[in-house]
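Students often ask why we bother predicting the structure of a whole assembly rather than each chain alone. The short answer is interfaces. A chain on its own may look different once its partners are present, and contacts between molecules only exist in the joint model. In this exercise we take two input lines together and write out one structure for the complete complex. Read the inputs first and try to guess which parts will touch.
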Amino acid sequence: MRLISRRARYLLGLATLALVVAPLIFVKGQYGGSDDQGSAAVAASRPGFHPWFEPIWKPPSPEIESLLFALQAAIGAGTIGYVVGRIHGAAKEREAQNNKKASPTDVAT
Amino acid sequence: MHIMEGFLPPSHCIAWGAASAPFLVHGAVKLRRVMREHPQARLTLAASGAFTFVLSALKMPSVTGSCSHPTGTGLGAVLFGPPVMAILGAIVLLFQALLLAHGGITTLGANIFSMAIVGPWVSYGLWRLCTSMGLSMAIGVFVGAAVGDWATYITTSVQLALAYPDAASGFTGAFLKFAGVFALTQVPLAIAEGFLTVLVMNALSEKTQVLEDLGLVRGRP
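Now the answer. The structure tokens for the assembled complex follow.
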């Protein structure tokens, strides 16, 4: 079942892009992570605060960390692309077979 | 919305873990049933898990001048139900806690509760509400995914405020402070997630009968 028209699809894609790009153009900021700001707010409200447990393993550098984040996104995006491709491929095949069945020569016999 | 390793007192870690556990058990049972009863939907299930995997890795800029990430749990919550998302969300959070030092093992229960339980249930509930009111599938999915994303961050604010109430203004003051960090930043990102969820669900369903097979819409008459 189709949820939205082809035109709505382009509009939604553009709107999504605009929502993410607009802040970069119009708002000056540090663009730090809100997760870290949350942790900082905890530390600020409790002077001398120390987390009582440390991560067992930390990416050794920001480069390795961004590598792992990129890997996570790539695995996810790759899977979605694979699934959508397979679904659409299967639909095309079904369509082709239906057309063959419904071809005039078959109907005549 | 990730609460970092060691940032919740041990008693809170245990309490949120205990609160999440029954949802995970329920989710595991439901997940097995979905795989058994809808083998043809396995690809769609993989895509739903992949969607939350991608989106929770993307930290995107917001109007407040800081970055945050969407959750991507609305898609699977609508398609397969919130219990299934509890499992898929927990897998993503575990991956990030172990390999990225993002979130944590001690705070896993609390993070599962906000991202993999509250978010999906809010998404699912609002989607049901919208479609039962006669609104279109697309609008229901958009509202569900967007508000579910936002509700996840509100839950995180509640969790932090419960653990660290303000000396003067108590829970409410602390909640407003943490919500000030999370909730406003999340608004445009939640809307973007709503749009993206509609696009991906459309891509998964426009050439197939998956929505009919899963009982989300009535089959063709």
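Check your guess against this: The radius of gyration of chain B is 17 Å.
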